[in-house]
Amino acid sequence: MFKGLGNIAGMMKQFSDMQGKMTEMQDKLGKLRFEGSAGGGMVNVEANGQQKILGVKIDQTLLESGDREMLEDLITAATNQALDKAREGAAEEMSQITGGLNIPGLDEALSKFNPNS
Q1: With the C-alpha atoms ordered 61, 65, 68, 70, is the resulting torsion angle positive or negative?
Q2: Residues 72-88 as b or e (16 or more Cβ within 10 Å = b)
Q3: Cβ partners under 8 Å of residue 35, min gap 6
Q4: Using CA atoms, how far apart are residues 62 and 67, in angstroms rounded to an integer?
Q5: Torsional class of 40: left (φ above 0), alpha (ψ -120 to 50), beta (otherwise)
Q6: How far apart are CA 33 and CA 85, in angstroms?
Q7: Sheet architecture: strand order including 33-38
Q8: Domains of the chain (ranges plus CATH)?
Q9: Is 112 exposed, middle or buried (0-12, 13-18, 19+ CB in 10 A)?
Q10: What does the alpha-carbon distance between residue 83 and residue 49 come to, in Å, rounded to a whole number?
C-alpha cells in the first residue's frame, strides 16, 4: 500500500541536498570577484559571481575631461566586460559542483535562486 513512499522520501532528500548545494554555490559566487576595464584602465568595474556590480572606479583625468558621452561608453564597456567574466566564472564553478554534467535548466534556476529572499 505504501510502497511508493520510500521513493518519495528519497526524492525529497535529494531535493533537500540540492537546495543545500545551491545555497552553498550562491554563497561562493557572492565571494568571487571579477573586474572589467575600459579606456586603458581609466574605468574599472568590479562584479561578483552573482553578477552584481560591487564598485566602479573612474580615473580623475577622465572626469575632468568633461566628455560625458565617452565616459558613459567606457562605463558601459567595463561593466559588460566584468559581467561577462562573472558569467564565465559562475559557469566554471557550476561545472565543478555538477561534475561537468550539463543539467538542463540548472543555470537558469540558480540565477533565480536567492537564499536571502
Answers
A1: negative
A2: eebbebbbebbbebbbe
A3: 44, 45, 46, 47, 82, 85
A4: 8
A5: left
A6: 9
A7: 33-38, 43-48, 53-58
A8: 27-112 (3.30.1310.10)
A9: exposed
A10: 8
Cell numbers describing residue 11: 526524492
Strands, E, within the chain: which ranges? Answer: 33-38, 43-48, 53-58
The per-residue pLDDT for 116 is: 45
Instruction: Tell me how crowded residue 30 is: count the other CB atoms within 10 A of its CB.
Output: 15
The pLDDT profile of the chain, 117 residues, written as one tens digit per residue, is: 555 566 787 778 877 777 777 788 888 889 999 999 999 999 999 999 999 999 999 999 999 999 999 999 999 999 999 999 999 998 888 777 766 555 566 656 655 544 444
Q: What is the DSSP string of 23-48?
A: HHHHHHHHH-EEEEEETTTTEEEEEE
CA distance 78 to 71: 11
- What is the DSSP secondary structure assignment for residue 105, as one 8-state letter? T
